[in-house]
Specification:
The protein has one domain. 45% of the residues lie in helices and 19% in strands. It contains three helices and three strands, in the order E-E-E-H-H-H. The chain is globular, with a radius of gyration of 13 Å.
Length: 84
Protein backbone atom coordinates (compact mmCIF):
# COMPACT_ATOMS: atom_id res chain seq x y z
CA UNK A 1 0.00 0.00 0.00
CA UNK A 2 1.13 3.54 -0.65
CA UNK A 3 2.16 5.36 2.52
CA UNK A 4 -0.26 8.19 3.21
CA UNK A 5 0.04 9.20 6.89
CA UNK A 6 -1.29 12.76 7.17
CA UNK A 7 -0.10 14.69 10.21
CA UNK A 8 -2.69 15.01 12.99
CA UNK A 9 -3.15 18.76 12.49
CA UNK A 10 -4.15 18.42 8.82
CA UNK A 11 -7.71 18.85 7.56
CA UNK A 12 -8.83 18.20 4.01
CA UNK A 13 -11.87 19.04 1.95
CA UNK A 14 -12.89 17.27 -1.24
CA UNK A 15 -15.18 19.03 -3.69
CA UNK A 16 -15.85 18.99 -7.43
CA UNK A 17 -12.85 21.19 -8.22
CA UNK A 18 -10.27 19.22 -6.23
CA UNK A 19 -8.82 18.54 -2.79
CA UNK A 20 -7.67 21.22 -0.35
CA UNK A 21 -5.36 20.39 2.57
CA UNK A 22 -5.07 22.82 5.46
CA UNK A 23 -2.60 22.79 8.35
CA UNK A 24 -4.54 23.96 11.44
CA UNK A 25 -1.35 24.95 13.29
CA UNK A 26 0.12 27.38 10.79
CA UNK A 27 -2.73 27.94 8.29
CA UNK A 28 -0.63 26.73 5.36
CA UNK A 29 -2.57 25.05 2.60
CA UNK A 30 -2.10 23.15 -0.61
CA UNK A 31 -4.65 22.51 -3.36
CA UNK A 32 -4.74 19.63 -5.82
CA UNK A 33 -6.86 19.48 -8.93
CA UNK A 34 -7.10 16.72 -11.54
CA UNK A 35 -5.23 14.37 -11.90
CA UNK A 36 -3.72 14.60 -8.41
CA UNK A 37 -7.16 15.05 -6.81
CA UNK A 38 -8.26 11.72 -8.27
CA UNK A 39 -5.11 10.09 -6.92
CA UNK A 40 -5.70 11.52 -3.45
CA UNK A 41 -9.34 10.47 -3.39
CA UNK A 42 -8.39 6.87 -4.15
CA UNK A 43 -5.44 6.87 -1.72
CA UNK A 44 -7.56 8.24 1.12
CA UNK A 45 -9.91 5.27 0.77
CA UNK A 46 -7.10 2.88 1.70
CA UNK A 47 -7.44 0.31 -1.07
CA UNK A 48 -4.64 -2.21 -1.47
CA UNK A 49 -1.84 -1.34 -3.89
CA UNK A 50 -3.02 -3.53 -6.76
CA UNK A 51 -6.56 -2.16 -6.65
CA UNK A 52 -5.30 1.43 -6.25
CA UNK A 53 -3.11 1.17 -9.33
CA UNK A 54 -5.80 -0.58 -11.41
CA UNK A 55 -8.44 1.99 -10.50
CA UNK A 56 -6.15 4.92 -11.21
CA UNK A 57 -4.97 3.44 -14.51
CA UNK A 58 -8.62 3.43 -15.60
CA UNK A 59 -9.42 6.88 -14.21
CA UNK A 60 -6.28 8.54 -15.58
CA UNK A 61 -6.11 6.55 -18.84
CA UNK A 62 -2.42 5.85 -18.18
CA UNK A 63 -0.25 2.73 -18.10
CA UNK A 64 1.10 1.27 -14.86
CA UNK A 65 4.45 3.09 -14.98
CA UNK A 66 2.82 6.46 -15.63
CA UNK A 67 0.19 5.86 -12.94
CA UNK A 68 2.77 4.96 -10.29
CA UNK A 69 4.76 8.05 -11.24
CA UNK A 70 1.70 10.29 -10.78
CA UNK A 71 0.94 8.65 -7.42
CA UNK A 72 4.50 9.15 -6.19
CA UNK A 73 4.65 12.74 -7.46
CA UNK A 74 1.38 13.54 -5.66
CA UNK A 75 2.61 12.05 -2.38
CA UNK A 76 5.97 13.85 -2.78
CA UNK A 77 4.13 17.17 -3.12
CA UNK A 78 2.41 16.56 0.21
CA UNK A 79 5.69 15.55 1.84
CA UNK A 80 7.49 18.66 0.55
CA UNK A 81 4.62 20.84 1.83
CA UNK A 82 5.00 19.24 5.28
CA UNK A 83 1.57 17.62 5.40
CA UNK A 84 2.89 14.04 5.67
Amino acid sequence: MFDFPLKKNILYVIDLSGVLFLDKENSSQIFFDYPEAAVLFILMNGYDTTKTIAMLEAILSRNTTQTISIINDTIDRLVKAGFI
